[in-house]
TrEMBL record:
One of its GO terms (cellular component) is cytosol. Gene3D superfamilies: NAD(P)-binding Rossmann-like Domain, UDP-galactose 4-epimerase, domain 1. This is UDP-glucose 4-epimerase. Its cofactor is NAD(+). Homodimer. Its EC number is 5.1.3.2. It holds the Pfam family GDP_Man_Dehyd. PANTHER family: UDP-GLUCOSE 4-EPIMERASE. Residues 6-329 form the NAD(P)-binding domain. It is an enzyme of class 5 (isomerase). Keywords: Carbohydrate metabolism, Isomerase, NAD.
Length: 346
């Protein structure tokens, strides 16, 4: 009998690609999403790719009784992958209380339900922001967790602490935190991809929207960082590689392969690219010249971050397969598909 997995925020960017990866590996998926930063159309995209329509519950996880009612209804959940969270650094600086409520209360309510189960398992969507500006690059899992540069980063640090503390006193709870670097790209079918509501907060949707003529030009925040070309350096990981890592981590818990009941892994490519290099990679695969200018640095942004992926490579037997050009190509294909759909609807 297939395992039933709850994916919170499963209609979001990383969540939807992970649902596809889970279904393709034979898992039965239930999605919770409040549609605050996603669209019900994504459910159709998942179904077109996998030929399976996952169960969907529109629930706001900030409502404790709704979380409790969900677990009363679905008593056979074998594991949870928790994506549901607000994730824009700039917005978190402007509206910290929203981020603390949305990113911490939801996790607490889930864990309260999970610890009552016989064999609770959770994969937590964390972030490389927990490292702040690391002293050494590439960043290993043993790098010190520094004072967060933003409320968003702080919620990921606190979220990990909440899980670790709960695992200490709940020996049957099994958990893994996955610290992502910078997810980009889309499913090769272009049925699902990154679909920001309103102004994009991430670089690649801004790039593709600028190339598509939706945005007049791209703003590159900061050109005076101590890097070879003056722009920030990030580790851009294809979302399909990231999705696959969640399945591998979940299987590790399910098969009882953990060395301890709480583990942490970095997920990246192990290579850093500057913002200008990312733009150049897009221009190369798309044949489009991007108009951009430089803007002041954004509060909360760090100079450089890229992963040491040795632990994930060796312990999870997982490695990123795609490079930045393949990711950019899939993101551009997704943007063109969106444009095509919008024209058909007019």
């Amino acid at each position: 009998m297939s395992k039933r997995i709850l994916v919170t925020g499963g209609l979001g960017y990383i969540g939807s690609h992970t649902v596809v990866a889970l279904q393709e590996k034979g898992f039965e998926v239930v999605i919770i999403d409040n549609l605050s930063n996603s669209s019900l159309e994504v459910l159709g995209g998942i179904t077109r790719i996998t030929k399976i329509s996952p169960q969907f519950e529109k629930i706001d996880l900030r409502e404790r009784h709704d979380v409790s009612n969900f677990f009363d209804k679905y008593q056979d959940i074998d594991g949870v992958i928790h994506f549901a969270a607000s994730k824009a650094v700039g917005e978190s600086v402007e509206n910290p209380l929203l981020y603390y409520e949305n990113n911490l209360n939801t996790l607490i309510y889930l864990l309260q339900q999970l610890k009552e189960k016989e064999t609770p398992k959770i994969i937590f969507s964390s972030s490389c922001t927990v490292y702040g500006q690391a002293d050494e690059l590439p960043i290993t899992e043993n790098a010190p967790v520094k004072k967060a540069e933003s409320p968003y980063g702080n919620t990921k640090q606190i979220g990990e602490e909440i899980i670790a503390d709960t695992c200490k006193v709940t020996s049957h709870l099994k958990a893994i935190s996955l610290r992502y670097f910078n997810p980009i790209g889309a499913h090769p079918s272009a049925h699902i991809g990154e679909l920001p509501i309103g102004t994009p907060q991430n670089l690649v949707p801004f790039i593709t929207q600028t190339a598509a003529g939706i945005r007049e030009k791209l703003s590159v925040f900061g050109q005076d960082y101590p890097t070879p070309d003056g722009t920030c350096i990030r580790d851009y990981i294809h979302v399909m590689d990231l999705a696959r890592a969640h399945v591998v981590a979940l299987e590790r818990i399910i098969h009882g392969e953990q060395s301890e009941n709480y583990e942490v892994f970095n997920l990246g490519t192990g290579k850093g690219n500057s913002v200008l290099e990312a733009i150049q990679a897009f221009e190369k695969v798309s044949g489009q010249k991007l108009p951009y200018d430089f803007a002041p640095r954004r509060e909360g942004d760090i100079t450089a971050a890229y992963a040491d992926t040795t632990k994930a490579n060796e312990v999870l037997k997982w490695k990123a397969e795609y490079g930045i050009e393949e990711a950019m190509q899939s993101a551009w294909k997704w943007q063109q598909e969106l444009q095509k759909k919008q024209k058909e609807e007019i």
